[in-house]
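Thread: "does anyone have the structure for this chain?"

Original post by V.I.:
We have the sequence but no experimental structure in hand. Need at least a predicted one for the grant figures.
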Amino acid sequence: MRGLKNSSSLFFLCLLVSACQSHRTFSLKTFMAIPESHRDDLHIIDVRSNRVRQECLFLGAEAENSWRHQYLMYILNDKNEVLEIMQPTNQDKEACYSQIRAAEEILRDDPRVKVCVRDRLQETKDKAKKPLIEFGSFGTHKVAYEALTLDSVCNSKKCLRNNDIWVNTCPGFN
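Reply from O.Q.:
Generated one for you, tokens below.
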């Protein structure tokens, strides 16, 4: 009887420990570019969907045209620092908001996403000029890094790619 009680206690403890473990909030894998290759560093961010925000920024200019919207994505890392990710080209308003809706569908469908970005990851020099981004229950946080270039955002079923300008796509991204 005592052996059964000890094994039951051990089973309960193992069950409790495994139930308390959860996926990490944020992980970043970086693949450094070879200097002679003239390519950018590649970063794969695995993050919870609720730590991602998006916006279309209207870029004011003197000449009137419709190609003045910039798609931006913000990711809150596990240190409560914000990474800014941008579409590499300006868009018209409709295309920018269409991209937000497509990415939002991916974010809603799965609790985790993988975001593939390019460029060198570097902290911003002048954080005072960077915007504050609202992350709901996670609070408001300042952008801490220079903008990275969006390549792909994927969940377990779907991908939104911006690979028209890239020859090599992110590994493991459909």
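V.I.: this helps a lot. The beta strands are 26-31, 42-48, 52-58, 69-76, 82-86, 112-118, 132-134, 140-142, 148-154, 159-161.
O.Q.: and The CA atoms of residues 139 and 159 lie 28 Å apart.
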